[in-house]
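Sync notes, pocket subgroup
Present: LS, DG
LS reminded everyone that the earlier model was apo-only. Rerun requested with adenosine-5'-monophosphate-propyl ester included. Inputs:
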Amino acid sequence: MSNIGSYEEKYTSFHWKQAEDELQYGKNGMYNIGYYCSDYLCEKGFGNKQALIWEGFTGEVKNFTYDDLRIFSNTIAKFLQDNEVNVGDRVCLFMDKIPELYIGFIGILKMGGIAQPLFSAFGEEALFTRLDDAKTKVIITQKKHLGKVRRIKDKLPGLTKIIVVDADQSSLQTNEIHFWMEKTEQVDNFDIVKADPEMPSVLHYTSGTTGKPKGAQHVHASIIAQYITSKWVLDLRLDDVYWCTADPGWVTGTSYGIIGPWVCGVTQVILDAGFGTEKWYAFIQKNKVTMWYSAPTAIRMLMKEGLDVVKKYDLSSLRHLASVGEPLNAEAVIWSEKAFGRPFYDTYWQTETGAIVITNFPGLKIKPGSMGKPFPGITATVLNPKTFEPITTAGTVGLIALKPGWPSMMRAYWDNKETYDSKFKNGWYVCGDRSSIDDDGYFWFVGRDDDVINTAGHLVGPFEIESALIEHEAVAEAAAIGKPDPVNMEVVKAFIALKPGFEKNDDLELGIINFIRKRLSPLAMPQEVEFVPSLPKTRSGKIMRRLLRAQEWGEEIGDISTLEND
Ligand code: PRX
């Protein structure tokens, strides 16, 4: 029997207040996520239980109990306070998947800071844009990433301290301070900021089509949704060994890689190493993973390696599997049944929604290829793209939209009210994706409704890539689009028009690629470059990426009436 029991019954009867009560959210005036992920579990008698089993890329293993988590997060919280970090200050986590990242996240929340996790593979330009936008006060990082921070720190007057978790003070410069989590004097009692349910907690940056990346700002009350979705969708139980493969630089890695599993009191395992089929299977076998939350690109990479390699490992511990971030194709669901004896359950949500909103549930029939149904407490529909009225005919494609009001919905885009307001139409939050709904109420994802590129489950804004490209002296104009890819779903392709006096050739292409490599994350790097005489534009001068994309995907070009030279 799954945790949720009957979906239909829960969908009609559930109210968020029930999850709040079950979690005892607000007991003794306490609303802080940091408390509910550590001290709360210790008070319930799980202090000696493993909270985190971490494995580094060299095979080194570290274990942390819930009591360790409580004490180390206290220690970090106190250290931040001692370094003049105040309630509401943004503290960036810029690290690989090391224990300090996970525990530091809890520490920041405990002292009332706003955690701003950023993917450690980001180039300096991507890092700068996000720190500058958030006016980040402190960054916590590792020696290996310090170079990037040093190259931009002079342009960030608000960045007062750089905390380095693995360096001796002697190797550091002014405003850089070392902090060894396990060697610093431990803080057993810390006065956790009680918080308010609406107090800002996490700031996650996400890419849009135009302009800078946007900081989706979440609040402490988000834990109510993260808790109950972890319980009902991920089906987490106290005896689970849970593995979320996402990096906390992205929302899956915090909502379900930190908050969800820890508030549910499970043991979570982390592998700080890249993808490797056999490495992954060996990790599941060794740790007896029972619940595995991953992404379609990883599943497609596993599929490529075939079933024989699966048989070399004992993966019988796996009880439940789920996936997020991109469309999960029906073949992947069917393959996983053959490979692991159970399907991957597709889950749909976004940085902005903070928690799973449309999904497949244990106990509810899966229709392979469908994202499933709305979570209890979520009213979801598809809207007519012109009138923004709900579409009532089954099978008709429209814009996925949600009725605002669930606890983990973002409360703002940081310092960007205009863009935030533009996401709401007719009282609906419009997700920016297209889908249809079938007669049984299942959602079938069709695609994004904008030019954002989804490569291997990571959203990449074309604007960032284009901005980096046009900084090169030879580039007159540039456009970036997603091109089909069998494993990553999409990879980045760049179209470049050169300035007069420059000739296309391999050396120039390499020069441009090397030039942008420093600025962008590896994910955003174009896999293909095409030189063109000019780019198609609308009469108002906007690049028509839609047209370039349609050519790449072999699709109908559609309405080109606004094209400049038609
Ligand atoms: O386009 C949808 C796609 O990923 C977007 C959200 O990306 P992000 O904010 O980075 O958060 C990713 C992890 C929650 C969505 O707007 N997406 C997410 N899940 C699915 C999906 N596309 C298809 N199927 C999904 N299950």
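DG: Residues 206, 250-252, 324-328, 346-351, 371, 431-433, 445, 448, 454, 459 surround adenosine-5'-monophosphate-propyl ester (CB under 6 Å).
LS: Residues 7-433 form a domain with the Rossmann fold fold (CATH 3.40.50.12780).
Action: DG to write up.
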